[in-house]
Amino acid sequence: MKRKGIFDLNQLNTRENRRMIKKLGWPGAVLVLAIAAVAYFFADDESDTGDYTLGEFHEVTVDQFIDGDTTRFNFNGSSESFRYLIIDTPEIRTDSGTPEPYAVEAGDRVRELLIGADTIEVEFDVGPMTDNYDRYLAYIYADGEMVNETLVREGLATVRYANPPNTSHLDVLEEAEAAAQEENAGLWSE
After folding, report:
1. Average pLDDT estimate for 77-83
2. Which of 26, 100, 113, 116 has the most CB atoms within 10 Å of its CB?
3. What does the angle CA 123 – CA 88 – CA 170 come to, to the nearest 5 degrees?
4. Contact residues for 58 (Cβ-Cβ < 8 A; gap 6+)
């Protein structure tokens, strides 16, 4: 989901462009570049909230399980990667090749919750819809139960990456984390 400009900046130094600069002269070429820059910066940015608002649920289906906090869903007719908002699960893929403690359990629990669900929905927050890796940022629900919260409450995820304004359900997740800590659940048993 990269921002699309009017032309590819890598193509600026072509013979055709050099001819255009000679024809227009340097003032004309600067004007063309200024117009292109303005158009680029005012182009639609796909990381905004678009037509989606907090509290709206969008039904999806699972395409691929990645790990405990990332899943590919069929959304609006295409396979898209979703990062679960405000949580972090241990990493399955590490440099050592050995998953971090509870990484496999977190991934298995997500599979269990989503495969067993009649309805899977995503809810976007009020801030950016995507992260730096072009993954959608959302709260994930299985039959109305927030998966993000379940993972935290069971000690399979921690509350992290609470980046305003995408923090509408932060209080719910912090309460779930406090309960998991008190019960020494999962990650908190170590």
Report:
1. 97
2. 113
3. 50
4. 52, 75, 121, 122, 123, 124
Enumerate the active-site residues. Answer: 83, 91, 135
d(CA 72, CA 115) in angstroms, rounded, equals 13
Owner of token pair 């935290």: 152
Give per-residue pLDDT as tens, 173-188.
999 999 999 999 999 9
* pTM for the full predicted model: 0.73
Q: For residue range 158-168, list pLDDT tens digits in order.
A: 999 999 999 99
Tell me how far apart the 2 most distant CA atoms of the chain are, in Å: 75
Cβ contacts of 126 within 8 Å, gap of 6 or more: 49, 53, 54, 165, 166, 168
